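pinned: reference chain
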Amino acid sequence: MMVVNYKEQDIAVIGLGYVGLPLAVEFGKKRNVIGFDISQPRIAELKAGKDSTLEVEPEQLKSASLLRYSYTLDDLRQAKIFIVTVPTPVDEVNRPDLTPLIKASETVGRVMTPGSIVIYESTVYPGATEEACVPVLERVSGLKFNKDFFAGYSPERINPGDKVNTLTKIKKIISGSTPEIATVVSELYSSIITAGTHMATSIKVAEAAKVIENTQRDLNIALVNELSVIFDRLGIDTLDVLEAAGTKWNFLPFRPGLVGGHCIGVDPYYLTHKAEQVGYHPQVILAGRRINDNMARYVARNTIKRMLQNGVDVPRSRVGVLGVTFKENCPDIRNSKVADLVRELQAWGAEVVVADPWADSAEVAHEYGIQLGKIDGNHQVDALVVAVGHQEFRQAQLQELRGWTRGDAPVLADVKSLFDRDAAAKAGFTVFRL
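pinned: its structure tokens
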């Protein structure tokens, strides 16, 4: 192994989204960092001291005095350590889409020099770093893996919108393509992660650890989602059951809901894809995915059913949907299942109005073809679906919501169980909730 003092080398972070920007900022407080993104508007806003993802405050951006932003390839040539933090989505049939990862690897391959380390943080299936990314690096750079350059994997654990469990407070899994590089990677992250690091025995182990974190959560939510379907048919309230069961010390406090976002709704498909490649067809994981992927339609159909029972002419009705982001108090709309809910309501002929104080209207229109609108006393609806638990919605009074609706018994589909069921009924709502 060639001798390189990595503590003195510049770092390049490739991809400045929810994962890459906080990482670049933390490193940029201590050493030279090039924050790279192919989006010129993104680079422009960061240079102006703004972060549209709301993950990093303006004061924090200013504190990273050694961080500079660029969309120019040549600026990356100064770095010896490359950290790749690009998205890893799935396609329309839920197959892993490694296109951003491959393109990022090609970018790094064009500028890396002997002794470089390329660390991947993007969520992938076990084996992807060495099977899909490293060959690209070798092909484009002309360098030999584990002789001229090295690799590491340290899965991201960012929780968008969470201001408590932030980057430096979450233990970091690390790995390297050689024991020596694993140590270098550990020392690198230890310089900013106060919670410490955990050294995985291999890159594959680190990749697998990441993908099962969200698979486990996905399955737990799928269980309570299925229970909510059963309990609705039995005429009992899911929240009442969960609160009763929760009095036992080891009962897991999962709640039903829509499962979207860039992790929980996506990562299991990376694991099942690899499992099928090696000849095993997963049963439990895919069953959980089917349940969670269908919950938006389930909510829409139950809303429609109650509207019909109340005599509402659905094809001439207006349904209001509060929230379109994939989680509360966060502008992230990636893989939002609210879009599925809207499409199902529209399929029944209803006019759907979506309101969200956190989402960017242009981004929502571009991604889902949904135009954000207003829901209030001057823009009333026949049914109201509270899809996301934003603080603005949690703080709303039931009488205020009732003023946003028309008719004798408008439907309130309280997906997140934000409101007291009995109080909502007294306010005049026909209530449905998971």
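why pinned: Residues 92 and 335 are 11 Å apart (CA to CA). The two ends are 57 Å apart (CA to CA).
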